[in-house]
Amino acid sequence: MRAKSFKILTGFALFCICISTSSLTAGKPPNVILILTDDLGYGDLSCYGSEFIDTPRIDKMASRGVRATGYLTAANICTPSRAALLTGSYPQRAGIPNGISPARPEHRHLGLHPNEVTIPELLKDNGYATGMVGKWHLGFDEVFHPLNQGFDSYYGMPSNFNHDKRFFNDREVIEEVSDLSLLTSNYTKKAVEFITNNQNQSFFLYLAHNYPHVPLKPNPAYAGKSRGGDYGDIIEELDASTGVILDTLEEFDIAENTLVIFTSDNGPLTRYAGEYDSSGPFRGSKFNTFEGGHRVPALFHWPSHLPAGLVCDTPISSMDILPTIAAITGIQVPNDRVLDGENVWQILTGESATPPRETDYYYNDNNLQAIRKDLWKLHLPRTAEDIPWWQKAG
């Protein structure tokens, strides 16, 4: 009798899961906007406790959606973190575990393999308009171009300012960037343009800011306004930019059908972790596998679908974004490869607090340096061979 009851309950639970996700795709499939900042730490937003930087628009976003306090990136540096975010797999599995720079000859022909399936590819193949604005950093050769990875349009830079100054409009190099102070403003205008042009169809927008990665040059309209120097001024403009995106959705009456995700690629530089508590309560920063390198802000905003003001402390990962987007849009994830991410929709809605994985792994390049299970984290011994080139360099 118990076994029969268990089967009935299990079947009912699976039925509820199917109902809770399939109902989201009834009618017009939802839009998705993924806003990624660069080197923004866990403690850099006022809704995460910053005493130096005011972020009222992002705070409002948190009050109307879900604020994740256990969100981890799959890497502590730009390139592998972005690979994991867009593919749903550890960067080691996706074949790009290290940071790449065009200034290093051995990196010039590296990038995200064209055979990898990305979020925009999944959505584009299912009728979505897909656009990217901002920093790519997943390869510099034409074969790695964003338009070859599922995007219909691209406006932005291949890497950081000090690595590659080219600025693209689709495949055309339109200028070499010299004035960085208007970068966030220009990205925001281009993002609004994409939303405006695609408001009547389902779309995916990937807005990948270069900031607050150094070098920092604040917009004159924000310079000197924060208590966090140039660093804080830059982040306060990112806050305003996020507000513009949310206001645009309201203006076109599509906010109720748009999931907006705001997060960071990895933790902050050590300097800002020290000066402005940018890692919040956590040890470490960018480049290392302590929590400050991997634990970053993550906010999920979708009126009428996500609970307002929910604080989610269940450990989830940037790798979970792809399968979760697939679930809410009714799209099948690739079945010809292993994904490390899981659909965490029920966690975001507060229906479950069960972590999607039993363990989380922290890598530096291909070196496994820490393992987390529940509230415990094991740090493995390091040797000189375990230190990747970017850590040795600075």
The coarse silhouette is: globular
Report the mean per-residue pLDDT as an integer.
91
Q: List segments where confidence is low: pLDDT < 50 over at least 5 consecutive residues.
A: 1-19
Which value, in Å, is the CA radius of gyration? 20 Å
Distance between the termini: 64 Å
What count of helical segments does DSSP give? Answer: 12
Q: From the helix content, strand content and strand pairing, which structural class follows? A: alpha/beta
Topology pattern, helix = H, strand = E: HEHEEHHHEEEEHEHEHHEEEHHEEEH
Biggest β-sheet: strands ordered side by side in the sheet? 7-6-5-4-8-1-9-10-2-11
Strand residue percentage: 15-25%
What assembly state would you assign to the polypeptide chains in this entry? single chain
Approximate helicity band = 25-40%
Please describe the biggest sheet, giving its number of strands, its sense, and whether it closes into a barrel: 10 strands, mixed
Q: Count all strands and give the number.
A: 15
